[in-house]
Amino acid sequence: MIMLSADIGGTNSRFSLFSIENRLPVYKCGVVISSKQEEFSHLLNKLFTCWPVEWTELAQASLVVFAAAGPVRDGCIEMTNAEFSVDEEQIRNFFPDAEIRLMNDFEAQAWACLSPVLKEAECLLPGSGAQSLDFSASSPVAVVGAGTGLGAAWLMPGDGKNAPRVLPSEAGHMPFPFDVRDDEERAFASFLAGDGAVLPTAGQVLSGSGLARLHEFFTGKAEDPAYFTAALSFPESDTCRLFARFYGRFCRMAALSTLPQAVVIAGGVAEKTPSLVRHEEFAREFVRASGAHGDFLSKVPVWLNRHPQSGLWGVAEAGAMLAHEGEAR
Fold first, then answer.
1. pTM of the complete model
2. Which residues of the chain have pLDDT under 70?
3. Are the C-beta atoms of 38 and 79 separated by less than 8 Å?
4. Which of 115, 207, 209, 239 is the most exposed place for a label (fewest CB within 10 A)?
5. Are the CB atoms for 20 and 26 separated by under 8 Å?
6. 3-state secondary structure of 321
7. Which residues have CB under 8 Å from 128's CB, separation 6+?
8. How high is the pLDDT of residue 125?
9. Residue 255 — left, alpha, or beta (φ > 0 → left; ψ -120 to 50 → alpha)?
10. What is the reported pLDDT for 159?
11. What pLDDT score does 38 carry?
12. How far apart are CA 151 and CA 305, in angstroms?
């Protein structure tokens, strides 16, 4: 079976063909296209014009699985960080004979935990000393990540009777819990909210744009993160310190919500600037809880997945699972 997988983000969209062999996805070829399109159909047209080999091979895909930032509703994803919506019917216009599935982008990042990319993950916090994730365990894996937005999902490992499953979420749109006792945090919350009556969301704080706003709060300079995070002094900056604290807090919330065996961090912010999660303030905030909760958190390992095609491989893993379930029926 030939499968077309896509990880459609607010900045770039990655497309790849995989063959499914022995229930596993095998990479064939792919392309990265800018997501700055006015219409979803324009992106699909560009896919065919930019495909690196003969496009007739692309048209032969019998399974099409796309992931994008936003909830899936009635065969459509209203993207939270792009101008267009991902629409199953428009995909069908290009692939009329294929089976089509849509999923949330962090649902794909959770599936990536089952893929080869996680072998390259870095252990940020060893927790109870686990050297790898145990997918025979019954507890879930929490997957979070800041990029153009903020995502979170939970991988539920399978067992002998049940296949793995993923619980997606829109946790990035929850209000962010600033510490009202901390003068610095209160000041930044006010700075970020401006004249708005609504509290800033977790995604507004933990994202590329949130990082830029935090830098502006401390320095008065509105600059692109790619510029100021490249400075050798950035890991010692106030921007890095406070962003690391906020990231550790969100990861702690994700851990306490489902009591996972591990937390995996993905997404473009930590991929490009790992100092944001390697900072001591991240670790300190992650385990900051009293009593039994603090003891539990100290035993939860935290992993950093910096693979740039993690989401794409997650889509492929999910597609291979769908293909196997189809064969079983």
1. 0.90
2. 129-137, 160, 195-197, 326-329
3. no
4. 209
5. yes
6. helix
7. 299, 300, 301
8. 94
9. alpha
10. 73
11. 79
12. 14
Domains plus CATH for the chain?
Answer: 2-103+309-328 (3.30.420.40), 122-304 (3.40.367.20)
pLDDT number for residue 328: 47
Give pLDDT tens digits for 104-140.
Answer: 888 999 999 999 898 889 999 998 766 666 666 678 9
Residue with tokens 């379930």: 325
| Torsional class of 127: left (φ above 0), alpha (ψ -120 to 50), beta (otherwise) | left
Question: Residue 172: which residues within 8 A CB-CB, separation 6 or more?
Answer: 149, 150, 151, 152, 201, 202, 203, 206, 207
The token pair that represents 209 in the structure block? 């744009």
How far is the C-alpha of 15 from the C-alpha of 29, rounded, in Å? Answer: 9
Both tokens assigned to 138? 């019954």
| Bridging pattern class, strands 63-68 and 2-8 | parallel
